[in-house]
Amino acid sequence: xxxxxxxxxxxxxxxxxxEGAILAAREYGVAIILVGDKPRIRQAINQHDTAxxxxxxxxxPEEIVMSDKPSHVMKSKPQxxxxxxxxxxxNGEADAFVTMGNTGAVHAIATLSTLRRIAGVKRPALTxxxxxxxxxxxxxxxxxxxxxxxxxxxxxxxMGSVYAxxxxxxxxxxxxxxxNGEEEGKGNQLVREVxxxxxxLTLNYIGHIEPKEILEPxxxxxxxxxxxxxxxxxxxxxxxxxxxxxxxxxxxxNPVSTVGGVLSRGAFRRVRSRIDTRGVGGAPLLGxxxxxxxxxxxxxxxxxxxxxxxxxxxxxGNTVEEIRRGLEQLKTDPQGx
Amino acid sequence: xxxxxxxxxxxxxxxxxxEGAILAAREYGVAIILVGDKPRIRQAINQHDTAxxxxxxxxxPEEIVMSDKPSHVMKSKPQxxxxxxxxxxxNGEADAFVTMGNTGAVHAIATLSTLRRIAGVKRPALTxxxxxxxxxxxxxxxxxxxxxxxxxxxxxxxMGSVYAxxxxxxxxxxxxxxxNGEEEGKGNQLVREVxxxxxxLTLNYIGHIEPKEILEPxxxxxxxxxxxxxxxxxxxxxxxxxxxxxxxxxxxxNPVSTVGGVLSRGAFRRVRSRIDTRGVGGAPLLGxxxxxxxxxxxxxxxxxxxxxxxxxxxxxGNTVEEIRRGLEQLKTDPQGx
Lengths: 337, 337
Description:
2 copies of one chain form a homodimer.
Chain A: E1 2-6, H1 15-28, E2 31-36, H2 38-45, E3 55-59, H3 70-76, H4 81-90, E4 96-99, H5 103-113, E5 125-132, E6 135-140, H6 150-166, E7 175-178, H7 189-199, E8 205-209, H8 211-214, E9 221-223, H9 226-252, H10 255-263, H11 265-275, E10 283-286, E11 291-294, H12 301-316, H13 319-326, H14 328-331
Parallel strand pairs in A: 1-2, 1-4, 2-3, 4-11, 6-9, 7-8, 7-9
Antiparallel strand pairs in A: 5-6, 5-10, 10-11
Helix pairs in contact in A: 1-12, 3-5, 6-7, 6-13
């Protein structure tokens, strides 16, 4: 398997990206192509022992930064690492593309100028995968489409279910719609319409779910529109950071609790590892003609390595082809037209 | 000042409701009218020393439970404590109504069969008030209207701003719209339209805000549609509970960290009190012709007492009349028609 890794993605590029790629090549035995500024990539590679590993490089003269407008980069930077990397997947030179870069740019370049949508896909969806009580749960859409339609979310449910089954190894994934209450009839007009559509499909659809039930966890795939999804994941992260800050301040506020905090250090380390999203590393952009895994800009090499692992699982699960097949059930459905 | 308190509101009614009312009468010197099942209220009162306090009772033969459908209780239970209590406010027999009961029923009875909307108000909004780094922040709408219009949210912004100024004592409250990004142009169609409207008003409107910025805190009033708002507060609460559970499990998983946890007990107590919503106790239903404060069903007497304090502040701030006046600026605005 050959994975193209964007060396110019993370905030501290190219070091975490290159090191993560080397770790993945060693751990999973895959061939890696690092795409980006070749001299800087070489310099980063030279800090490591890569004997026996298949690590290639591909030069990309243009660099996308976090402040770049997605609509702009497509035209103004056709030689970026993202563009070249995704074209390699498109041309069959590689099996997957992994990046920690600008989310909007990933979405725009994949959808509009390189891989493009799978036939029949109305809108691709950005996903997030979080460990919930030791189990990977996939959330979509977390930001690609701020104004969504029910037929788009219907496709997201199928794409998420296929991915959970094929890449995350979940048997008959439980699919739920995020809502403001469980009862039928709760929700806004959009999720009520989505609920009706999903009941009609051959999915393991369990209905609406509230935020606290996600954490039990009651579902494997959580479907929502991109505006709600983006606020959902940001609220969750903000609450965790907030509580962590408050705990830290209060433990340090008093000598006895400071000692207590030192003794509890191992426990806090285990807490961090349980809620750490770096263990997943990245999540797919679903609905495009190729495996694209996007990780966080703040990723370190451990997160990059795990994002590459996610790409490997997505390729092994044949997720792109399986999504194409999964969506076929909509073709016989007059509502899906 | 006379406050009607629903004795049949909390999950453990009437004990926390009655005890909280007695605490409030003692601490704030207000007259209390407890409405509900008179024999049970009397029994609860008799457990306390109420010498020198003005505590009256009013019998309500019907009881609303959490499972009651809001649309149903209005017609089927016209003699409920909520109905009678709110009618007392309407008739001028009391200055405010406080309840820990069924949210949907509070909203329906206030809006449709007792107090009704302030003239010109399109939709009342449910609010939540949270302590954020020691400062009260008001969120609305948190669930009254799952499908909202921009002109409703425009009114929510004004109502929230008036309340923050008059009841929470905030000078020129900073009003923000919750969105998936700060930049102009971010957001879904609804919040973009709301943003345009709010820029045109005489509000201290600071634009879009992301969840993490709420916690800095950058704003005093956070405006959102009822579907997003309900998911926002539930996600925040769920994340806090989740992290608390994980920390507890990991501290208990090992003898050294268990000792550390014991030594940090004071710190954790301070953390709990800092994030404790019982200190606020309740938040208003805004847009109806009277002060209605709704607290959580799980409230204890401390929370009930604080909800009554919230009612006192709302009455002292003349919030209902000030909201009426605040909304007048929309009348000269052709968009507000």
